[in-house]
Give the backbone structure.
Amino acid sequence: MRAWANGQVGNVVWRKVFTDHPGLIELFSPGNESTLATARAQEPKLEDAIIRFGPPPPALIEELLNGRSSASRVIANGWGVRPNGFRANLLARAGMMPSPQAPPSAAFLEEHALSAAQLQQFFAEGYLVIPVAVPTALIEDALRHVNSSVGRGAVDRSKPMLVGLAEGAARAPELLSVFDSSRGSKLPTAVQSLLGRGRAMLPPFGCQVAMKYPSPGAAIPADGGVAAAAHGDRCARKSSLACIVHDVYFFVQSTRVVIFPTDGTSMGSTRALIRRSRFSWGSP
Amino acid sequence: MGVALSAQAAPRCGELMVHPGAHWQLQGAVRDHVASGSATFSRMDEGESEASLNPINGGRAGSKPNLAPPVSVLLQPGDAVLCHQKLPHLGANNYSPHVRHQLYFRIAHVALAEHRDQWLDDLLLPFEGVRAAVDGAP
């Protein structure tokens, strides 16, 4: 009974893992045994998951590889499975990083290249606005997907007033298609103008869908609404001003800067870390 | 990288705000801070609370870097904003009647793992195109 239960749990767990990290499916496909062995030796989390839940059921692997699951939607999009953070790290360590050559949909197009003045502005100010970077049709597809997902309840409401999509929905092709240069997007070229041709991992693996809901009142405070945001009311959250320096998150609040190592934690877990280790410092 | 799905034509509609150029300012501050070995930029003495330190409440701001007022990044649907990952930024509150929709992507350099520990000394490390433009390379 316990073995059966573990098998059922394992199936659910692995399905969730593969949905979140489609690149891992390939690792368990036939013929990749040596890569998998390397991964198990180098990634304690993977080894721990295999020990706790057993290896993923072959039927599940076959189902996902045959594209009958949501985890394979990226494959159906025609861009293939791009290595995620774990996969990329693994391949890098093994000297097997895929060619940096951009896939066709992320091609560099000269007519969309950033000008020298734009690059200079990015250098000096650290940001750059690109007007009409994504055609209206792609924006409407993305917005339709967002609103449809909200209507179906596939949302992440962990942040007050800033609603996001659930993790799976935030990796949908409708969103990643804003990077499709074959449909007129300037984004792949703009990114490669900054990082160098073929030097960016494109298209990205997912995105944050940030829906910022209106405050209860329309009156903008005397401080212009900035102080309220920066000082952490319930609408703007505690840590509204964040930047990353030397792999250290800086949370610049109204009164101080809290520093701690990120260790690859997400922003969500980072906020929890703040609550636990305020004023702490660790080596970056 | 932010991609606007909805219009953000006026300030305080939930738009992104940035401190232009402040990543350069913070780089030095962080380097000094790391060298000092201090636990935090700002200090909270015994009996003080976050609220009591807040300048709005008449408290001292501590030694937090002064980044100057932030600037609103106003966008129309389809516009994109590219930000250096170390650029200090925040989100304005939304006093408009509309929901602000935006996509944010984190773009990775193919050599991200190699760059991991070198950020403190070189903010342009992955920006090969920017460096070439600044250095005047073809």
User: Anything to note?
Assistant: The CA atoms of residues 137 and 183 of chain A lie 9 Å apart. The two ends of chain A are 46 Å apart (CA to CA). DSSP finds 13 helices and seven strands in chain A.
